[in-house]
What does this fold into?
Amino acid sequence: MNKRSIWFHAAALLICIIHVLPFYILLTASFKAVDDLSSKWISPGYVYLDNFVNAWREAHLGTAFTNNLFITLCAGVLIVALGSIASYPLARHQSRLNKLIYTIFISALIVPPLMTLVVTVKELYYRMLLEIEQFAQLRQLKLFLAGSTDSMLWDLVSRCQYLNDVQELLRQTLSHLKEAVSERIGATTAAKIMKFIHLHYADEDLSVTGIGSEMQMTASHLIAIFKETTGTTIKQYLMEYRVEKAKELLIDNPRLKVFDVASRVGYKDGENFAKIFRKFAGMTPSEYRERYGR
Amino acid sequence: MTAVNRLKPSRLNHMLSSASILNILYIPALLLFCMFIFYPFIKGIQISFTNWNGYAQTYKWVGLYNYRRMLTDPDILKVIRNTFIYGLGSALLQNLIGLGYALFLNQKIRIKGLTRTIVYLPAIISPLIMGYIWYFFFQFKGGAINDIILLFADKPINLLGQPNFNVWIITFVNTYQYLGVAMVIYLAGLQTIPKDYYEAATIDGANALYKFLNVTWPLLAPSITISIVLNVIGGLKLFDVVTALTNSGPGYASASLSTLTYLLYFGREDAGYAAAIGNLMFAIISVVSIAALVYLRRREVAAS
It folds into this structure.
């Protein structure tokens, strides 16, 4: 190699490196964790593939790719078929008409692409519904019946004939969402009540009204929600929980008197406690200790 | 009987080869053209005379109101200027660098195939994705260029936020993407120049510059015409890169006529005015590309 050739090769290599840089940055960025804030020039020192998994799962890359393939194949076949047969007469008979037709075809290049864009109301509504569905899915709320497919939502939208129909669909979906959300809120209210009981069962003054004022709800509303989501009443649950705790205390602390156990789980009146214990455990506290104690 | 038999194929042949019957062949393509280009285009002109918002059932005819609005629009001049920078600026850069690369990669270099492939590679990627890739370079927080700037200065620069500078960044990215196309057109053009001309010039004692000016340049004229016209049209229609890099911002500082049309249509629900801008864009592209075509064709004739 002479000197000139070496310079040429060096220049070609430089061009290669400059033009590959954006792809290098793309590569490093795609392998970096979301919270990795190191410079994009530095390659990550670990293998992180979640970005690819997320692209596939959350961005629906599979669907997008299938669509792309379909469009490309169809467009390719159409372009080759229609283009080749159209160009034959245009090339062979260059009459005045054909020259005009040729110019018209070429002019398609200069028509702004957005002028040919079509947007429909249905599409707008569909997008809104998709957002709602995604919101529901992320929170594991069921909006539609089980077994619904990806295309179901679009089927529902495309079946609508009038603007009123689409609006009705949106309204229905929103009310489904509202129901699902309020159900969920019911469940969390019950969980909150239970947690409150778990923390305060030893307090002998614990009452439904007390819990209600703590959670800023009326007692009757509280009872209704709790009953609906768990199937038992708050009072029942409180008693059960206190008895369970008493059982633990009886076994774990053999020296503790029954009266002390009662006061530790929130019963001032020992006899009352014994009665309730008997109702739930089927025996007196001392019998229970004898049978199960170490 | 025999006469009929002899007549039939010849008449069929005659009919098939006659000009008018063959024209049937381009009718399918013409139908598609009418459906997807011509009809929407006419519809667009129609919409530009209304105050339609893009999806309402009703609209009013407002005559030339949308076109008169253009005259008082404070952003429109800037947007037209940007569009010309995108169109003419990137066409100029693409053709200068593309021609340079083509001349260079036409030499005897062992890795020229690889280099040509790498230079052409960006052209096969969607321009929107190309925009996002370059966003990694120019972004304010953690951008690759700001990482380098931080080595020398203590503050990063918001490159995409500079109203007059980001236009050139977009031009650069568009140039980077379609450089390869111009290069390939010139490389193809270079292959059609007969070697004898260079040999003759060498015998006459011409140096490299003289050979370029008197052999390569005039004989490349057809390639120059097609490459410049295509790049000008592509640049004037630029949409994706602008959307990806700056989304026309800050404000409308880096908007092109395409992105302005889009923003007006879907953002401000001003379909009538958007259609009017679209028609203005069509007029500008037609005038510029036809003027370029006519001028370059004349130059071709003069050169040959």
Notes: Chain B is about 75% helix and 0% strand. The radius of gyration of chain B is 25 Å. The mean pLDDT of chain B is 86.
